[in-house]
Every structure is written in structure tokens, then in C-alpha cells.
Design brief:
The complex is a heterodimer. Chain A is 30% helix and 24% strand. Chain A has nine helices and 18 strands. In chain B, strands 1, 2, 3, 4, 5, 6 and 7 form a seven-stranded mixed β-sheet that branches. The longest helix of chain B has 8 residues. Chain A: This is FAD-binding oxidoreductase. Chain A: Keywords: Oxidoreductase.
Chain lengths: 369, 98
């Protein structure tokens, strides 16, 4: 007897599936296969707090909460699977390359603190003299940056591998090449047809990334997510030189520098061309001229799973209770919350009120009237 | 599967592999020089320190990384030899130079 079906084997689905399994639910994890867009495999790898939730303090708290769950998640995964997710949370910096950027950043950080209320939000706007004490070889174009102590980074691929291994080691059932071809929904009674067979359970969780847009209506849910392309450049490995991650530059545990970040609204298109890649490289070299001496050995693009307002969507179906949806573009940052906070709520059968603001009903026209 | 090329070329180009003189044919790669030198390895991997020699010889596996004429992390199989070229061991990850 299956207690729960999770649709989507990426970071979001795997974290929730592991969390459900740890709550004692007999759980099946359905994965589409290598034809899927697999945002999890293109993730930049930040566990990032400082830019999340401007004007939406509930998102700021959810993100902070997830970052604080991360050490326990990383320890648990390392103990159970032997896989090191390379978590480091030394704080992080968002660099500003113009006075306008710096002023905008300072304004955003002040607003974040104000919106945090009694919850608090520590940050510091730094000028180059102070930044130079932390970051080696800072370029003359850098006019400042914002630091918060909550930020960090981890390896998305070891994380994905560890979540899968912990899940299957705990008795969870992983089914690959199981693209959903049909579904029937009734309250706490779901049947999901896939290329790998039919599955039935009283609970279903939609965590299929961009696939959720099409799946959700079949379960009385709404997930209006769209693809947003991001590109990443990777340098040759270098000895550890960066003590903490930045918004668009981080050094992995193995020594590669990852350079981002870009946002393109181009639909389901993963192609890469020089103009955006050049912009990423130029910005990185302005921040740290010595990066120009490193060879680029790889580049990739991936599609973020974006809601209209950029925030996650979490819902339980009113029409078909037992059906849940989870959508976000921060599969690494939110892994702690998904495995350790959201999954227990789903196991209990009710999302906590802290997640109310994340409902897709916020996009309903009737609500705004 | 593989056959010796019919046009055996004389080894006329002098290069230094870890300071040892090696003669290789014109047009050969630095990776060929490394293999001819008889060294047991030309690099250690950055993460585990595992010793490596050139493997794929077509620019894919990165196991032939070497410091060539002072430039670290070069794929020796993608570099054509030149007289006097200095090919040295790549010890793990290179240093970034701020």
C-alpha cells in the first residue's frame, strides 16, 4: 500500500520524498527521465538568503528557516549516505559595480530589515576598503557590496545524489522514466498513470518543476510557472581563494569558479550564445580581474521554475484534499525546509498557516478585486 | 584496430619534460612527449591527489593537464610541441593569481 506519490525526481521532489519517507510514509518517487529539463542539474548552488523576500517577509522567513535547517540536513545526509554535500555557510556578499547598484542594494537591505521586524535581519553595506580585507584581488570597478551572515553554498549534484540515496536506502521507491501520462483525482484518492505503470495513493505531491503547470489543473491546483533561462560559466580548478560565495561568483569545494548569473525570458530554449556568456564573463572579471587568467572549461544553461511574482507556490487542493503542489526556483536553498518542514506538514495532511501567503490563489483576479 | 602510421617521422624536436630532454617528431603533441618521457605520471588530481597520465588524447578527459611554458592546467594533448618547450608536472589545482 502506497501512502504518497511524489511526481518529480529533482531537488524539490527528492527532498519532499525523503521527508515523507522519514515520517514513515510508504512513498513512491516518479521521475520523468533524461528528457526532462532538470533545473536541479543546472543549479548554481547557493544557499542564499539576502536577496529573497523583498516585500514578502514570509518568503524571507521561509528562506532563512531553510538555511538554518541546512546544517542538520547536510549532517543527516552525510551520516546516512556518506555523501558530502559541501555545505558552507560563512555568509555571502552581493557585489555592486556602480553607485546606482550600491544605493539600490542599500535600500533593499534596509527594507529587508524593516520587514523582518522582531525577527531581525543582520547585514552590512561594505565599501571596497572593507571588502578587500575579505576578498582577494578585488577589481577597481567594485564600489561596494552587501554582506549577510546567513548565506552560503553547497554542491547541487551531491545534494541530489544524497537525497536520492537516503530516500531509497530508507525504503523509498524510486521509479525513473515515469513521465505522467494521465491521472484521476478524488479526495484523498489518486491514480497516476505513467510510462512505467500506474500508481495509486491517498496523497500526491506535484514537484515536477515546469511540468507542474500542466499537471496541477488535473488535481484541482494551479501552478502558473514559466521557464526563465539562466547561464553558468565554469573555470578550471584553482586552489581555494574565495572565502565566501557571492551572488554571481562562487568557488566550489573542488576549486572550480562558477560564474553567473543571467535571466532570459525565452521560453523552453536552452541554447547558449556568446552575448550573454560574454556579459557574465565581463562582470566576473570586473569584480576580480585575476579571473580573466583562468580558462573557461564548461558552460551550461538551465531553466528556472518561475512563478509570476518570483516566489514559491505551495498549496493543498481544496477540491481534492491530499494533493499538494511545491514550486520554486531555489531547489538548493529550500532543500532544508522542503525535507524537514514542508514534508512533515504534508504527512500530517495540512499546510501550516505560515505557508498561506504562498498559495497560488494570490494570482486569482477575483482576489484582487 | 590500430595500425602504425606508415610515414614514420624522425624525432627532431627537443622539449623538456620535467627537465628531461625528450625528442619528438615535428607536429606531435606535448602529451606525446609526456608519454615518450617514460614518467609514471604528469599530474595529480586536485581533489584526491591521484596520479595521472595522458589518456584520451583528444581533448576530452583532462588527464593530461600539465604546466606548459609556465602556464598551468594546459591540456597537453591539445598543444603542439615547439623547440625548447618546457612541460612540467601539474600539482593538483593551479593557483589563481590576484
Amino acid at each position: 500500500m502506497t501512502d504518497a506519490i511524489v511526481i518529480g525526481g529533482g531537488l524539490v521532489g527528492a527532498a519532499i520524498a525523503l521527508g515523507l519517507r522519514d515520517q514513515g510514509l510508504d512513498t513512491v518517487l516518479l521521475d520523468e527521465g533524461d528528457i526532462a529539463f532538470r533545473a536541479s542539474r543546472g543549479n548554481f548552488g547557493l544557499v542564499w538568503v539576502q536577496s529573497k523576500g523583498l516585500g514578502a517577509p514570509w518568503y524571507q522567513r521561509w528562506t532563512r528557516g531553510s538555511a538554518s535547517e541546512w546544517p542538520a540536513l547536510a549532517d543527516d545526509l552525510a551520516t546516512r549516505t556518506g555523501i558530502d554535500t559541501a555545505l558552507q555557510q560563512p555568509g555571502g556578499i552581493s557585489l555592486c559595480l556602480s553607485e546606482a547598484e550600491f544605493e539600490d542594494r542599500a535600500r533593499r537591505m534596509a527594507q529587508m530589515r524593516e520587514e523582518a521586524g522582531n525577527f531581525g535581519f543582520d547585514y552590512r553595506m561594505m565599501r571596497p576598503d572593507e571588502l578587500r580585507e575579505i576578498l582577494p584581488g578585488l577589481g577597481p570597478s567594485v564600489v561596494g557590496g552587501s554582506f549577510t551572515p546567513y548565506d552560503g553554498h553547497a554542491g547541487p549534484l551531491p545534494l541530489l545524489r544524497a537525497l536520492h540515496k537516503a530516500f531509497t536506502d530508507a525504503g523509498g521507491r524510486y521509479v525513473p522514466n515515469a513521465k505522467v501520462t494521465g491521472a484521476t483525482a478524488a479526495p484523498n484518492d489518486f491514480r497516476v498513470e505513467t510510462a512505467a505503470g500506474t500508481f495509486a495513493a491517498p496523497k500526491v505531491v506535484l514537484a515536477a518543476g515546469l511540468g507542474n503547470a500542466e499537471l496541477a489543473p488535473q488535481f484541482g491546483l494551479n501552478a502558473p510557472v514559466r521557464p526563465q533561462k539562466g547561464q553558468v560559466l565554469v573555470t578550471e580548478r584553482a586552489q581555494t581563494i574565495l572565502p565566501m560565495p557571492m551572488t554571481s561568483i562562487r568557488q566550489t569545494a573542488e576549486g572550480s569558479l562558477l560564474l553567473g548569473e543571467s535571466n532570459e525570458e525565452v521560453g523552453f530554449d536552452l541554447s547558449q550564445a556568446p552575448p550573454v556568456m560574454a556579459k557574465i564573463a565581463v562582470r566576473a572579471v570586473k569584480a576580480f580581474p585575476w579571473i580573466g587568467e583562468l580558462s573557461i572549461v564548461r558552460a551550461w544553461s538551465a531553466l528556472r521554475v518561475m512563478a509570476p511574482d518570483g516566489l514559491p507556490i505551495y498549496d493543498q487542493s481544496e477540491r481534492f484534499p491530499g494533493a499538494f503542489t511545491a514550486n520554486c526556483h531555489s531547489g538548493v536553498t529550500l532543500a532544508g525546509a522542503h525535507a524537514r518542514v514542508l514534508a512533515p506538514m504534508i504527512a500530517r495532511g495540512a499546510l501550516d498557516p505560515v505557508l498561506d501567503p504562498f498559495t497560488a490563489k494570490r494570482f486569482d483576479v477575483q482576489n484582487a478585486a | 584496430m590500430f595500425r602504425t602510421r606508415p610515414d614514420i617521422r624522425p624525432a627532431t624536436v627537443e622539449v623538456l619534460v620535467e627537465g628531461n630532454l625528450v625528442l619528438v617528431p615535428e607536429g606531435a603533441t606535448a602529451a606525446a612527449a609526456v608519454l615518450l618521457s617514460g614518467l609514471p605520471s604528469i599530474r595529480e588530481t586536485p581533489v584526491t591527489g591521484s596520479p595521472r597520465l595522458p589518456l584520451c588524447l583528444m581533448g576530452v578527459c583532462f588527464d593530461c593537464l600539465a604546466e606548459i611554458d609556465g602556464v598551468p592546467n594546459r591540456q597537453a594533448c591539445m598543444v603542439t610541441v615547439a623547440p625548447g618547450m618546457r612541460i612540467a608536472r601539474q600539482h593538483g589545482a593551479r593557483a589563481a593569481r590576484p
